[in-house]
Specification:
alpha+beta; 365 residues; 9-stranded mixed beta sheet
Length: 365
């Protein structure tokens, strides 16, 4: 990751200068997400919900079967295999939870809620879970989806950390298709766009994509989107999708872009003296991706196919800014868990907070 190494040097030297500047501290709230605990429906939606409730059943075997078919197709498009709760045996997640048993102690966005398995979706819980799907992406990391009805409204919750806190999924396809299934409409699975030659030439959907890649590594849902970091007079951008990341940053007056595709079992060739420059160029976007825990914080770590060292790491975080909880992405370089750059969800916030250091973030300098 030569260009990131260059920018890392610029970052580290500049951070030493900024260390002496005054900075503000912000106290982190216990609320872990900005999504509402239970969404409020419009008057039309409420009327629709009431009408359906009068029928006595909101969810049935036909809808459940359609959801199962959709999840199989969607999982294949993500190169992930999801296990469905069979209605009897608890799903055991790699992160140590058992569902639906552990719904009794679940929280949503840090708030206590009533959440329970309810086959027909007509229970009195805040969230009536009608389907559960789990994917173990490592020996200690998992992604679990709970398809729920909250006051008759279809809401997909996701849990992908080591605790029992849930939040509404940001995955557009999951949200829209669950609503379509609930309303009796058709579903549609879009395959991820092939944005580089390495993806186009891969045999996606097979167990081995060639050269030991073994499939894609999914990024945390909370990390997906577009993020900005304002540093040393330059606005850097980070775009994160299901299994890809793109950096756009400035070195002086020159804008550079770095594209990353995350694979599971990529063989590191940093010490391969026989690797040609042609091979290095054609596979410059190939990165290994894996998850690690530091003091209870989940990190996504990446390292290029031809890079040595521990690679770079990312984690999600939240801070109270101007009276609101704001999601952040923390980026660091090297083996430790220290932060080099903080990414914000908007350019305005990135500029506004560029000189701020938060008391609950471990900065490298």
């Amino acid at each position: 990751m030569k260009k990131l190494t260059i920018i890392s040097s610029v970052i580290l030297s500049s951070l030493l200068i900024l260390t002496g500047c005054g900075s503000n501290s912000s106290k982190k709230s216990n609320v872990t997400s900005k999504v509402k605990v239970v969404k409020q429906s419009s008057s039309k939606e409420k009327q629709k919900s009431v009408t359906k409730k009068k029928s006595g059943v909101l969810w049935n075997s036909d809808k459940d079967s359609r959801l199962e078919d959709f999840m199989k197709q969607w999982g294949e498009s993500m190169d992930q295999t999801y296990t469905k709760y069979d209605g009897t045996n608890n799903i055991q997640t790699a992160s140590g939870m058992s569902y639906p048993q552990d719904f009794g102690s679940a929280t949503v966005d840090g708030h206590d809620v009533s959440m329970a398995w309810n086959k027909k979706g007509t229970g009195k819980n805040d969230y009536n879970v009608v389907a559960i799907y789990n994917y173990n992406n490592s020996s200690s990391s998992s992604i679990t989806y709970a398809f729920t009805l909250a006051d008759g409204e279809p809401i997909v919750l996701v849990n992908e950390d080591s605790g029992n806190n849930w939040s509404e999924t940001k995955n557009k396809s999951l949200k829209e298709n669950f609503v379509n299934i609930f309303d009796g409409k058709a579903t549609h699975v879009e395959k991820p766009a092939a944005s580089s030659s390495s993806v186009k030439n891969s045999t996606k959907g097979t167990e081995d994509m060639g050269e030991g890649r073994g499939g894609y590594v999914a990024t945390p849902e909370a990390m997906r989107g577009t993020w900005y970091s304002y540093f040393n007079g330059n606005m850097d951008k980070l775009v994160v999708s299901e299994y890809e990341m793109t950096f756009t940053y400035n070195l002086g007056k020159e804008e550079s872009t770095r594209h990353i595709i995350l694979y599971k079992n990529l063989v590191n060739k940093s010490l391969d003296n026989n690797a040609s420059e042609t091979e290095k160029e054609s596979k410059k976007d190939w990165y290994s991706g894996w998850y690690e825990d530091y003091n209870g914080i989940k990190f996504l770590r990446i390292r290029g196919m031809f890079e040595q060292g521990s690679g770079d790491h990312f984690s999600t975080h939240e801070e109270e800014i101007n009276g609101q909880e704001v999601p952040l992405v923390l980026y660091g370089i090297g083996a430790n868990d220290a932060t080099d750059l903080v990414y914000y969800p908007s350019e305005d916030l990135a500029k506004q907070q560029s000189d701020v250091k938060y008391g609950d973030i471990d900065y490298k300098f």
